[in-house]
Amino acid sequence: MSKFFIAAATLLAGVSVLPAASATLEDLRWNSRVLVLFAPAADDPVLVRQIEALRGAAAGLGERDLVVFAAAGSRILAVQGSPPSGETSASLAARLRPKDKAEVSAVLIGKDGGIKWRAAAPFPIGAVFDTIDAMPMRRSEMR
């Protein structure tokens, strides 16, 4: 019987607990970086190609603790991780969308909650990775 408890305790010690779904961007602060894509509609061809490119780089996104979602029209689409359930496309656009209103654009938010990068799409995934990898918090994570 004691062997069972030792085996169970050993197994449970290796289990990682996944964070619960967040309600707002603020709930992601200090745990995740966030990349928000903005587009007029979910079927926008530029958005679709950008999402495909991001999904192709899923390992790099995960390595950098990056949650990615799109505010497309009135919908929020998950790309990597779970988007905050308490946010709306309109509220995100009002707070974060660049003033130039490019048809498809992106905003990168650091773990500290600050905006770190903005770009019109399509953009190379390497630009996002380079921006994140240059951040002091990321450099300390890589040590």
UniProtKB/TrEMBL annotation:
<protein>
    <recommendedName>
        <fullName>DUF4174 domain-containing protein</fullName>
    </recommendedName>
</protein>
<keyword id="KW-0732">Signal</keyword>
<feature type="signal peptide">
    <location>
        <begin position="1"/>
        <end position="20"/>
    </location>
</feature>
<feature type="domain" description="DUF4174">
    <location>
        <begin position="25"/>
        <end position="141"/>
    </location>
</feature>
<dbReference type="Pfam" id="PF13778">
    <property type="entry name" value="DUF4174"/>
</dbReference>
<dbReference type="InterPro" id="IPR025232">
    <property type="entry name" value="DUF4174"/>
</dbReference>
